[in-house]
Write a structure and sequence with these properties.
The chain is 52% helix and 14% strand. α3 runs antiparallel to α4. It is rod-shaped, with a radius of gyration of 28 Å.
Length: 210
C-alpha cells in the first residue's frame, strides 16, 4: 500500500480533501482533475482501515451519498435527497474508522471539505452541464423569452382600450395587439381608454385615461 493512515487526526485531512475535491468537481469545470484527486484521497481513507469487501461497500455508500446531494442540488432543490446523501457519507466514513476518535475526525473533515468546496466557485468556471434541465435554462431556450419581456417593458406609457371589463383584471388592446392586464384595484368597464403605467415581467398595470 502506497500510503496508510496511522494517526487518527490524519482522517480529518484525508476525508476533508476527498470531499473538497469530489464536490468541487461537481461544482466547477475542473476537467476531471478534482475527481481524480478526490477519489485518490477517499481510496486512501477506506483502504487504510477496511478489507477488500468492506472497502467496496463503504466507498459505494460514500459515492452514492455524493450523487444524492448532486441530484438534490441541481434538480429537486427540496433538501430531502441532500439530507439522505449527507447521512450516507457520514455513515460510510464514520463506520469505516477503527475507533470513535478517528471517526469523529473523519466526520469533521467531511463537513469542512464540503463547505470549503464552495470556494472553488470564486476561482473556477461554474459547471453548466446540469443547469440544462432546470427551469431557468428551459426558459432561456424558449426563443423570444427575453425579447418578450423587453417588448412588454416598451408598453409603458402607451395607450389603448379595454376589450373586456377590468375587475380588476381583463384584456386590453394596445396597437392592435391583445394583452392581459390588471388595474390598481379599480374596476374599468369595456371600451374604456387606458394607459400602461407599469410592467413587471409580463404583468401589465393599466389605469383609465381621464
Amino acid at each position: 500500500m502506497f500510503f496508510s493512515i496511522t494517526a487518527d487526526w490524519v482522517s480529518l485531512l484525508v476525508v476533508g480533501f476527498a470531499t473538497l475535491f469530489l464536490i468541487g468537481e461537481l461544482l466547477v469545470n475542473a476537467r476531471g482533475v478534482f475527481a481524480i484527486l478526490g477519489l485518490g484521497f477517499i481510496t486512501i481513507y477506506f483502504s487504510s482501515f477496511l478489507d477488500l469487501n468492506m472497502f467496496f461497500i463503504m466507498i459505494l455508500i460514500y459515492l452514492f451519498g455524493l450523487m444524492l446531494i448532486m441530484i438534490d442540488g441541481k434538480i429537486l432543490n427540496d433538501g430531502t435527497l441532500a439530507v439522505i446523501g449527507l447521512v450516507c457519507m457520514l455513515v460510510s466514513v464514520g463506520f469505516a474508522a477503527p475507533n470513535w476518535v478517528a471517526g469523529l475526525y473523519a466526520v469533521i473533515g467531511l463537513f469542512i471539505g464540503a463547505f470549503a468546496s464552495l470556494g472553488f466557485l470564486k476561482v473556477f468556471k461554474k459547471r453548466q452541464m446540469w443547469t440544462k434541465i432546470t427551469l431557468f435554462d428551459q426558459l432561456s431556450e424558449e426563443a423570444g423569452y427575453s425579447s418578450l419581456n423587453q417588448s412588454y417593458r416598451e408598453l409603458v406609457g402607451k395607450t389603448g382600450k379595454t376589450i373586456t371589463d377590468m375587475r380588476p383584471s381583463g384584456t386590453v388592446l394596445i396597437e392592435d395587439i391583445e394583452y392581459s392586464a390588471v388595474t390598481q384595484g379599480k374596476w374599468i368597464t369595456k371600451d374604456t381608454d387606458i394607459t400602461v403605467v407599469q410592467v413587471d415581467g409580463t404583468r401589465i398595470l393599466v389605469k383609465e385615461v381621464n
